[in-house]
Design brief:
Blueprint: H1 2-21, E1 37-40, E2 47-49, E3 53-60, E4 68-73, E5 76-81, E6 86-91, E7 98-108, E8 111-123, E9 127-129, E10 135-141, E11 144-147, E12 163-164, E13 178-180, H2 186-192, E14 195-196, H3 198-201, E15 212-213, H4 217-226, H5 230-237, E16 269-270, E17 276-277, E18 282-292, E19 299-307, E20 314-320, E21 330-331
Parallel strand pairs: 2-8, 12-13
Antiparallel strand pairs: 1-3, 3-6, 4-5, 4-7, 7-8, 9-10, 10-11, 13-14, 15-21, 16-17, 18-19, 19-20
Helix pairs in contact: 4-5
């Protein structure tokens, strides 16, 4: 009887040990331990313009729990990540228009332990036409939509003509809004856009087409922060190659890759002395922000610049309002 009781007790304890060993409550692949995935840069039901450059940031709440995470578009893997936080730059140029499904799936030992899915709409790229009839292409960079070409308008939004400046080395210092072509050559205006003085930029009749405007300093800061900061944004904004970024005045090579699609061109400037300078190796862009000097009583405007051999997008500096620079517009 005692032997039977001992056998029964031993058998019960052995079975309990087996059951305890089979308890998977501490198994990291148990559904109860599903990882939380955090995504910024894209959200459900968003509309994204075809050609947009989207920076997607990905993180998980437990780094030890995930050995791989797949970013997928319509079931096809775009990129796999093994360390976090992670960042992915998504160029939508090759993506079909219409509904798209973006999925983030986390794995441990090839078992799915977490997922997040968004349905978005890829829409047709916008074009915009100014009063002259010039048609501009556009690109979405983050939350902003920018023109891809420099402004070429010779009329304000209301149809009034913008005065033409014929610069010959003796600059007219009038406070009338005006524009010119680099070297007074119309073909330069066709390629690089017009050079406007700041009086035209801030004129209440507005040089930007309806629904668009000359950007503020803060809007340019939003752009450069999205592209990784002032030290690298310029390289991502410049048109790649040497078709336009080249000059006999420098041996420097264009460092730009145009990752953003902004396609900055080196339109140069009309200087304070009335001479043309820097086409081929410098791009200058007015902002809408200006100020009056308390000392000289003169008007100044803020502008940003990009050089041929640097990736920097230089800080906005004050320039005489009668100087001429390029204008790039952003959507309202």
């Amino acid at each position: 009887m005692k032997n039977t009781l001992k056998t029964l007790i031993f058998t019960s304890l052995f079975a309990l040990a087996i059951l305890t060993g089979c308890d998977d409550s501490n198994d990291p692949t148990n559904d109860e331990n599903e990882v939380e995935i955090t995504v910024t840069g894209v959200e459900a039901d968003a509309s994204i313009m075809k050609g947009a450059i989207i920076s997607i940031n990905i993180d998980v709440d437990d780094y030890d729990l995930v050995d791989k995470l797949d970013l997928m578009l319509n079931g096809n893997v775009l990129e796999s990540f093994t360390s976090f936080p992670a960042e992915y730059t998504w160029n939508t140029f090759q993506v079909d228009m219409g509904e798209q499904i973006i999925t983030f799936q986390a794995y441990l030992n090839d078992k799915e332990i977490g997922s997040k899915e968004f349905t978005i709409e890829v829409t047709e790229p916008l074009t915009v036409t100014d009063y002259d009839g010039n048609v501009y292409h556009t690109v979405q960079i983050g939350s902003q939509i920018w023109m891809v070409e420099n402004l070429k308008a010779t009329y304000y939004r209301n149809g009034d003509a913008i005065s033409s400046i014929n610069a010959v080395g003796n600059l007219d210092l009038s406070t009338t809004g005006g524009y010119c072509n680099y070297d007074n050559n119309a073909s330069n205006g066709t390629i690089y856009g017009k050079l406007y003085n700041f009086y035209a930029v801030e004129d209440s009749r507005e040089i930007a087409p309806e629904g668009w405007h000359v950007p503020t300093q803060e809007e340019y800061k939003t752009l450069l922060y999205y592209l990784g900061g002032a030290d690298v944004a310029g390289g991502k904004m410049k048109e790649a190659g040497s078709e336009h970024w080249n000059s006999t005045l420098t041996t420097a090579v264009n460092s730009g890759n145009n990752e953003s699609g902004f396609t900055a061109l080196p339109g140069g400037m009309l200087t304070a002395s009335g001479d043309f300078s820097s086409q081929g190796y410098m791009a200058y862009f007015w902002t809408i922000d200006g100020y009056d000097s308390g000392i000289s009583g003169k008007r100044y405007g803020y502008a940003r610049s990009i050089g041929i051999s640097t990736d920097k997008f230089y800080d906005a500096n004050g320039y005489h309002a009668y100087m001429g620079m390029s204008v790039r517009c952003v959507k309202d």
